[in-house]
Design goal:
mainly beta, 3-stranded antiparallel β-sheet, 3 strands, binds zinc ion
Length: 43
């Protein structure tokens, strides 16, 4: 998942060849890691 640095929209799918925000056309995108569930010991 990516996030646009300009409009902060999250972008699920990206074209590998033409990387660009589909919302505003900005080409600077941040790579975003999917949320990872943390395992917390409960004992
Ligand atoms: Zn954008």
């Amino acid at each position: 998942m990516y996030r646009c640095s300009k409009c902060k929209q999250s972008i699920k799918e990206l074209d590998d060849i033409f990387v660009r925000c589909p919302y505003c056309g900005n080409r600077v995108l941040f790579k975003e890691r999917p949320p990872v569930a943390k395992e917390v010991p409960t004992s």
